[in-house]
Amino acid sequence: MAGRRLLVATAVVAAAAAVVAAAALEAINVTTVAFEEGYTPLFGFDNILRSADDRTVSLLLDRSTGSGFMSSSMYQHGFFSASIKLPSDYTAGVVVAFYTSNGDVIEKRHDELDFEFLGNIRGKPWRVQTNVYGNGSVSRGREERYLLPFDPTTEFHRYSILWTRAAIVFFVDDVPIREVRRTPAMTGDFPSKPMSIYATVWDASTWATSGGRYRVNYRYGPFVASFTDLALLGCRVGDPIGQMLSSAACTAAEDALLASDLAVMTLEKQQAMRRFREQNMVYSYCYDTLRYPAPFLECDVVESERRRFKGSGHLRLAFRRRRRTRPGSRPARPTRAADM
Ligand SMILES: *[C@@H]1O[C@H](CO)[C@@H](O)[C@H](O)[C@H]1NC(C)=O
Ligand SMILES: *[C@@H]1O[C@H](CO)[C@@H](O)[C@H](O)[C@H]1NC(C)=O
Fold it and tell me: Bias regions of kind Low complexity — which residues (predicted)?
């Protein structure tokens, strides 16, 4: 009995400690820009709606077209961020993406870092996918997928990508949710060339929701994704091709970024990241032994975590805290923005 009470007491202390750690996480505080200062329309011009102060942009997908914008410059490393509000209600087949890429200028050996938001049928949550490609490694997708611990359609939440020569970190609000450290084994699979930043909404009926079972239904359109708090911190480079990290200015800017609160991975951040992943990750390429019989060397395979995942890389149903995904439904196949 005493042992049991002690256990409960310990759990309470642990929970309290977790709350304290969460509270201690520093808020991301970066300079934001107006659309015109950092971005330019990419496609579906009529479906890009800019607010009067030019600090909020809405991208529409309707029967005629999706839409998108891209950064006016390319960047060699940096911190790229937007607060996004996703379309609500019935969004099957709709994909919203916020990502970095140089696929437009370097076709065969392009780099890419993705946040992809996969729409869903009514009552089912959006899922978020992150991915990393380097030097055209599109046959080696490094997808992870998560459910969000909030409704991303009711208010804005910040999604950020930190890319340095040392690591890539994806953030949701102030919480790092994924860190890919550069290891020698990754060789060219670690993105290394200047990239542009993109935001898009488009019709991915063929795969986005339950492997294409649910297509976009335009009776629920137009689908509106809004972007604000646009932040682009990094070294701008003019000529995209061939211009590798060489200028002292770029190196100095990156050194400053690496030393800043954004990039330093504190113990609190590591703990918050672990908690987010324990509670919300539903797929990881690191546990997908069907696709990759030998895990990539950069995978930090945690035995206690691995047991929660099937050989397909998907979280076992028993571990799905919120049973919001349909049992037995086939997950969307791993995706690449190259499919666009
Ligand atoms: C954010 O950063 C700016 C400039 O560095 C600073 O003046 C401001 O006080 C900060 N805000 C918060 C809430 O920390
Ligand atoms: C990228 O790929 C090209 C062509 O496959 C290869 O020649 C080059 O060495 C690779 N670069 C890196 C950094 O791995």
Answer: 328-340
- Whole-angstrom Cα distance, residue 89 to residue 99? 24
Q: How many CA atoms lie within 13 A of 306 on its CB side?
A: 11
Task: Tell me, in angstroms, the distance from the centre of ligand 1 to residue 166's CA.
Answer: 26
Ligand 2 atom closest to the CA of 188, numbered from 1:
14
Could you read off the pLDDT of 148-157 as tens digits, one per residue? 999 999 999 9
Ligand 2 binding pocket includes 56 (Cβ within 6 Å): no
Is 112 annotated in the active site? Answer: yes
Q: Which helix (H) or strand (E) holds 22?
A: helix 2-24
Structural domain tally of the chain? Answer: 1
Under DSSP, is residue 35 helix (H, G, I), strand (E, B) or coil? helix
Any domain includes 6: no
CATH number at residue 291: 2.60.120.200
Closest CA to ligand 2's atom 1 = 135
pTM as predicted: 0.87
**Residue with CA closest to ligand 2 atom 13:** 188
Active-site choice (107, 116, 143, 155): 116
Domain for residue 13, yes or no?
A: no
Residue 8 lies in a domain: no
Domain assignment of residue 334, given as a range = 28-339
> The tokens of 40 are what?
């330019």
Active site residue: 36, 37, 107, 112, which one? 112
